[in-house]
Automatic annotation (TrEMBL):
It comes from Salarias fasciatus (Jewelled blenny). Keywords: Activator, Chromatin regulator, Cytoplasm, Hydrolase, Metal-binding, Nucleus, Protease, Thiol protease, Transcription, Transcription regulation, Ubl conjugation pathway, Zinc. The gene is usp21. The lineage of its organism: Eukaryota, Metazoa, Chordata, Craniata, Vertebrata. Its main location: cytoplasm. Belongs to the peptidase C19 family. USP21 subfamily. This is Ubiquitin carboxyl-terminal hydrolase 21. Interacts with BEND3. Pfam families: UCH.
Length: 357
């Protein structure tokens, strides 16, 4: 017997299978297959699609073509008595119409695809009509109030299941070296792109070290710094990033690819990461306490820049599975950590002081 999904009003029920179904590669589409498997194991999004909740919500005037095609693929993956392999051709076709950049059969970047896919899905199921954006006046507010005002403004324009699950808020703090003035800006994020500290080929780093590097204070010279509000000119300053609001699902991109003037290179450094109880509290507001996350999916990249292949590792009620296009096989926990880990998907496991809405 499969799992039973029930809608919020308990009027509809749906029996689903194990979700351990592969996706056909239709021509260098391993990037799509790996990302879709990770999203398919994002429970809030999976249930929203399988129960077709988007049809009951008020959303933008756009046709939900991509959401329909995406939900159709997820339905195939989770059918109680479905096929062994699902063909994502319709999903890819609709996506390429929406984002022509992904046309053709060349290898694409999985994290870039994920960003475009979530953005287009959000646009189709946005609960808000389009409104002209005006920056709010936050002068005189305390830091937390200023952040809350900016977040409220964001939700007045962008509010969907994608936002509910994936959106957080980053704080960028600038400190002027001349007059010591502090200023803050707040930006919405759907993933964190983390730098990987330099190591020798055999070196190993931790996810904590990547997060530390992401959030460490950075010195900006006059040419690269914004105008100081008090000095009214460009000055040397320091910049620090922190998380102001934590999303339900945090997507962490390990930035393995670096672009120089002449080429793109890939880092194969082994980055170790916790499977449970990743605490992001130290990277948030001072009073937020522990903010814990559990890993549920990994998008891997094997090979080189030009000859690469994407796969996924995803957790379900019965353990972990390895998704390699149409092939699906069980995994042990000890097999999860490799130097191929590229995008990590974590689900919030506790309710901390920083509330989303």
């Amino acid at each position: 017997m499969g799992l039973l999904l029930v809608t919020d009003n308990e009027k509809e029920q749906l029996t689903i299978g194990s979700g351990r179904v592969g996706l056909r590669n239709i021509g260098n589409t391993c990037f799509l297959n790996a990302v879709v498997q990770c999203l398919s194991h994002t429970r809030g999004l999976r249930d929203y699609c399988l129960l077709q909740s988007y049809k009951r919500e008020k959303f933008s005037k756009e046709e939900a073509k991509l959401m329909e095609a995406f939900s159709q693929v997820l339905s195939g993956l989770w059918e109680a008595k479905g096929d062994a392999v699902v063909n994502p051709r319709q999903l890819y076709s609709v996506f390429k119409d929406a984002v022509p950049y992904f046309s053709g059969y060349s290898q694409q970047d999985a994290q870039e695809f994920l960003r475009f896919l979530l953005d287009k899905l959000h646009t189709e199921i946005n609960r808000r009509p389009y409104v002209r954006r005006y920056p709010p006046n936050c002068h005189g507010f305390q830091l937390s109030e200023e952040a809350a005002v900016m977040w409220k403004k964001h939700l007045e324009r962008d509010d969907s299941m994608i936002v509910d699950l994936f959106s957080g808020q980053l704080r960028s703090s600038l400190h002027c070296s001349v007059c010591s003035h502090y200023s803050n800006t707040f930006d919405v994020f759907c993933d964190l792109s983390l730098p990987i500290p330099k190591r020798s080929a055999a070196g190993e780093v931790t996810l904590r070290e990547c997060l530390d590097l992401f959030s460490q204070e950075e010195k900006l010279d006059k040419e690269n710094s914004p105008m100081c509000e008090r000095c009214n000119r460009r000055t040397e300053c320091t910049k620090r990033l922190s998380i102001q609001r934590f999303p339900q699902v945090i997507v962490i991109h390990l930035n393995r690819f670096t672009t120089s003037r002449w080429s793109i290179s890939k880092s194969t450094v082994y980055v170790s990461f916790p499977l449970t109880n990743l605490d992001l509290g130290p990277y948030g507001p001072a009073d937020c306490g522990s903010v814990l996350y559990d890993l549920y999916a990994i998008c891997n990249h094997a090979g080189t820049v030009n000859m690469g292949h994407y796969t996924a590792c995803c957790a379900d009620e019965n353990g972990w599975c390895f998704y390699n296009d149409s092939s699906v096989s069980p995994l042990t926990v000890s097999q999860l950590q490799t130097n191929q880990a590229y995008v990590l998907f974590y689900q919030r496991s506790n309710s901390a002081a920083t509330i989303r809405k």
